[in-house]
From TrEMBL:
Organism: Hevea brasiliensis (Para rubber tree)
Domain Protein Lines C-terminal positions: 652-687
Protein name: Protein Lines C-terminal domain-containing protein
Residue ranges annotated for the Protein Lines N-terminal domain, each copy included: 463-585
InterPro entries membership: Lines_C, LINES_N, Protein_Lines
Length: 698
């Protein structure tokens, strides 16, 4: 297929197929006409798929990368002709997204996805096509908000986009609705997935640039103006905007559902943008990521308001929970993919209190999982029940607490260097400081304050009568916290790594800053360190696995958890080797450790009724009052050493068995990645165990 005919052939194919159905200004489909249109569209889809297959077979003979970099290859006349063909194709298909047939909309969406792949593979007009597709989405949204803004000409004045193309697309989208916009977003998201598979940075960069332009140009603030509309006796022949508002949340369930689908697709689209933008080298030197991330971060408060704000009570509980799940996923993905500034982190903590307050304060207790544990993580499970606090709330609680802890820990660990790296640090900030160091200091205090208040709500220290009870309760809360995440592997190790990350900063800050605020007591560092001590948590983690090295091996070779599990084990082994006495003196009552659980993971009978011996909480250069507490802890540990060595023995056997299994697989070239660093850490651990045995402790 020659490069000067492929777009023309595609244009004629679509025009001949859909013209009989789109000749009138308003498309009205009878049942028979809808059936004929679906048959015609199915034929078009098959033909384009065959054209795409032929193009892929010839791709080795073409110089697509060079063509993709130069729009005017073959002359400006050829470029102009190709551009006009693609605009005609879009105009003929996009008008079909305005009809009231979900089957037609779905099929047209699939055709647009294949055309996007076809254009990307052709090596020509990609920038023009993807920009036009975003213009269509912008026009569809603007049409729904037309009552609140002046007539828009977004894109018409763009030097890379001609006015005639803009107004042609605009005329085809005069009857666009939320279903139209939702379908276009679905097309764009599937196209982004295709680009990810192709691993073409140049095409992805042009896509992200168009996405940034779209997100910046749409008048999103007018979404906040949409209120619950008229009463149920409103006339059917009201104006388009009044009809839309009235239908949005009260009478017309179809329109309400369409807006819900649009918001759901939009959040998913933003999640995909976040993931893909981090795989592309940014063009702007001042950013360590693509600028689209800053725009998405600024969207978070808007999305929470649109999805969970004043209209939440009119949504089904399952839809509300779905929105919560997706919004938490977006915020967590942003927090892991980019450096969030102090003001953004503080703002997000406030948003968590506004929209997820009951999940933050939901008791972290032992979970009673039954046979339906495999469904527990589904955000749609509540569709089977109208209960607000169903089993699904545990899933949302995990994500909420993880985001809360990550925001607190990020604030605590902020330094002048990390603040400079945060390109979005000042977005939506109402805080003013004379220097970055002042902002960092304020951020650290806010992080400790939020974390302290949250821990106090779950584990009040005022109820502890003595030091042993204090440590016992801390250990019990740590265990319950760990149990909350044990049955959801995809975030288990993210949580464990977060808890590991805070320890160095607790040690660094123990002598640097003193708190005079009455809300935070001076023993805050000791309080946090007692609960999130990494050595104790590692022991509890192994106990939850019933000290089964095969479970650890499964984690290590899993494509979902392999990298994070390996990182966690590496960091834990280093901590264990540097805190050897604390590791070997860890103690838990025997009857708790020996209890069995499903999947060979340990489910404890009561998270707050642990009979444990106190153990050391070591923090360098800690204040004198905290040193006294640690001395008592150490003395208590040594006092009960002879009776409490069982956890160390089981942990030792588990880790040494893991070492033998990894070595065996690596020797046979069956391990999925190079485990030599992990084996070195395990060898160091083994040496310390042998040294311990030579001194008379087995």
């Amino acid at each position: 297929m020659s490069s000067d005919s492929k777009f023309s052939l595609l244009c004629h194919l679509i025009d001949d197929s859909v013209r009989p159905f789109t000749e009138s200004e308003v498309i009205s489909l009878t049942r028979d006409k809808e059936k004929d249109l679906l048959i015609a569209l199915s034929r078009v889809l098959r033909e384009i798929q065959l054209m795409k297959l032929a193009l892929d077979c010839d791709s080795d003979k073409e110089v697509a990368p060079e063509l993709a970099c130069d729009k005017d290859v073959g002359g400006s006349g050829m470029h102009h002709e190709d551009h006009n063909c693609l605009i005609k194709i879009l105009a003929d298909l996009i008008i079909l997204l305005t009809v009231e047939s979900r089957f037609v909309q779905h099929l047209v969406g699939n055709i647009l996805v294949v055309i996007s792949e076809f254009v990307a593979a052709s090596g020509k007009e990609w920038d023009s096509f993807i920009h036009s597709l975003f213009i269509c989405l912008e026009l569809a949204i603007a049409n729904m908000l037309s009552h609140f803004l002046a007539p828009s000409k977004n894109g018409a004045g763009d030097s890379s986009y001609d006015s005639s193309s803009f107004f042609l697309l605009k005329s085809r989208l005069e009857n666009a609705n939320w279903s139209t916009a939702a379908t276009i977003i679905r097309v764009l998201r599937k196209t982004l997935k295709y680009l990810k598979q192709e691993d073409d940075d140049h095409l992805c960069e042009m896509y992200l640039d168009s996405a940034s332009s779209f997100l910046s140009d749409v008048p999103w603030d007018f979404m906040d103006e949409i209120q619950i509309g008229q009463s149920s006796d409103a006339k059917e022949n009201d104006s388009q905007n009044s009809h839309f508002i009235d239908a949005l949340f009260v009478r017309k369930s179809g329109e309400k559902d369409a807006r819900v689908v649009f918001l759901g697709n939009f959040i998913q689209f933003l999640c995909s943008l976040v993931e893909q933008s981090c795989a592309v080298e940014p063009k702007v030197d001042s950013y360590d990521h693509h600028p689209v991330l800053c725009i998405i971060i600024s969207f978070v408060p808007k999305l929470l308001s649109w999805c969970l704000g004043k209209h939440e009570n009119f949504l089904k509980m399952s839809v509300s929970q779905y929105f919560r799940h997706k919004l938490l996923m977006l915020m967590l993905r942003l927090s892991y993919q980019t450096c969030l500034g102090c003001s953004t982190l503080i703002s997000w903590l406030q948003l968590l209190h506004v929209y997820f307050e009951e999940l933050l304060w939901k008791p972290i207790i032992k979970l009673d999982f039954g046979q339906e544990e495999c469904l527990e993580g589904s955000p749609f499970l509540l569709s089977l029940s109208d209960r607000v606090h169903g089993i699904n709330s545990h899933h949302l609680q995990r994500w909420t607490v993880l985001l809360f802890v990550k925001c607190c820990f990020s604030l605590i660990s902020l330094t002048r260097e990390t603040s400079k790296q945060c390109g979005c640090a000042t977005l939506n900030s109402s805080l003013t400081f004379d220097s970055i160091s002042d902002l960092d200091s304020y951020g650290r205090r806010q992080g400790f304050l939020e974390l302290y208040k949250w821990l106090q709500g779950h584990l009040p220290t005022d109820t502890f009568l003595d030091h042993e009870m204090y440590l016992e309760k801390c250990r019990g809360f740590s265990l319950s916290f760990l149990q909350l995440y044990m049955h959801e592997d995809d975030i288990l190790f993210k949580v464990l790594l977060e808890l590991l990350s805070i320890q160095p900063f607790l040690e660094q800050q123990s002598n640097k800053e003193k708190w005079t605020n009455g809300d935070v007591k001076q023993d805050t560092l000791f309080y946090v360190a007692s609960i999130f001590n990494p050595v104790n948590l590692f022991h509890l983690f192994l106990a939850e696995l019933h000290y089964d090295h095969q479970v650890l091996l499964d984690y290590l070779i899993s494509k979902d958890t392999g990298i994070t599990c390996a990182e966690y084990l590496l960091r834990c082994l280093r901590t264990v080797c540097n805190s050897w006495n604390l590791f070997i003196t860890f103690s838990v009552h025997k009857k708790i450790v020996d209890q069995s659980s499903c999947k060979k993971r340990k489910i404890y009978s009561d998270g707050f009724n642990l009979q444990v011996e106190a153990s050391s909480i070591t923090i360098k250069d800690i204040s004198s009052s905290l040193e006294d507490k640690c001395k008592k802890d150490i003395e208590c540990s040594h006092k009960h050493w002879k009776n409490t060595s069982q956890p160390f023995k089981k942990a030792k056997n588990c880790l040494l068995s893991l070492k033998d299994s990894v070595e065996n697989l690596h020797r046979k070239n069956l391990f999925p990645y190079n485990p030599e660093v992990l084996l070195k850490r395990l060898t160091k651990f083994q040496e310390l165990c042998f040294d311990q045995k030579s001194r008379g402790f087995s």
